[in-house]
Amino acid sequence: MKAAGEPVLEVDDLRVSFATEEGVVQAVDGVTFSLRAGEVLAVVGESGSGKSVTAMTLMGLTRSPNAHFEGHARYKGTELVRASEDELRGIRGREIAMIFQDPMTSLNPVHKIGAQIVEQIQAHEDVAGAEARARAIELLEQVGIPRARERADSYPFEFSGGMRQRVMIALALSCDPNVLIADEPTTALDVTIQAQILDRIKELRERTGAGVILVTHDLGVVADIADRIAVMYAGRIVEEGTLDDIFYDPQHPYTWGLLGSIARLDRPRPDRLPTIAGLPPSLADRPEGCHFRPRCPHAFGKCTETPPLEARTPGETDHSDRCWLGAEDKRRLREVAPGEVGLSAREQAPT
């Protein structure tokens, strides 16, 4: 992994809520993290955990009359949460770029892809159209678009899903951003194309030293690319650590469940993969205390109180979790498959 540099993005106690007919939806609840230059931070969790809202808030894309924001998000000292639209327009695309989840709805269907890349370049840089087009073609070549000069005059519908995602990457890289946010960049792509997309992101990090936030629901996707991982559930980060911390020494029962649902090549093939019981809670009506409590087979009395995100293992500095279980209890319980635990596991939990 590439050594990370100084922090370029710092998020502190970020809270995002929306007023709806069902009540206040607390989509992001006290999220804190930092991103260093040259670092890949993976934000993982099930759908509805607040990953995309967090990412889009950094870009100023969740602003609406029913939205309410608290906390801070600073890019090189510039406050993003309360920045004006003019300030954000200067940052979006040039300093912080985003690869959106669905390239078909993110690309303008009535404009040629080359023209869309040229438009972004000229929006941020004073360059002639011919120079911007030459750079657009070069970017398309870099992301593996064959016959890039010819395909620059094609429309989005003339590309496959994987090729459209490559165009989105070229668009995001067009101004050499310092931070790249990739929101589910491999969703709905076959495994071969997934690997190619991730390789392109790694090449960007190595070539430019950009910090990368990779948003995904699949821990398997980040195993070969992430430096650090933040696990989100119901709007909160419930565990954060290095790649090795999360994969080899996970501390939160929700993380155990995510890891348990991944097929392992070093173990006998199970009849079916374990699953986490139940469904994520409505963000308009979240459980008190630990939000994972109703689905956790190891819940006990203290879980009705909200656990802080902190290191609970002596000597830990960069690995933290949001769980009341003690270190010894975790070591004893975490090897139990999440799809097979029952009342016996709950009975073993502390009281």
Concise structural overview:
The protein is of the alpha/beta class and 351 residues long. Helix content is 32%, strand content 21%. The strands form 2 sheets. A 7-stranded mixed sheet has the order 6-7-8-3-9-10-11, with helices on both faces. Strands 2-1-4-5 form a 4-stranded antiparallel sheet, covered by helices on one side.
The portion of residues forming beta strands comes to: 15-25%
What's the arrangement of strands in the largest beta sheet? 6-7-8-3-9-10-11
Order of helices and strands: EEEHEEHEHHHHHEHEHEEHHEHH
* N-to-C span: 42 Å
Characterise the protein shown here:
The protein is an alpha/beta fold. The two termini are 42 Å apart. The chain is built from 13 helices and eleven strands. The relative contact order is 0.13. The strands form two sheets. The protein has a seven-stranded mixed beta sheet, sandwiched between helices. A four-stranded antiparallel beta sheet has the order 2-1-4-5, with helices on one face. The protein has helices spanning 51-58, 85-91, 103-106, 113-124, 129-142, 148-151, 161-173, 191-208, 219-222, 243-248, 253-260, 327-333, 343-348; strands at 7-20, 23-36, 40-44, 67-75, 78-79, 96-99, 179-183, 211-216, 228-233, 236-242, 320-321. It is globular and about 65 Å long.
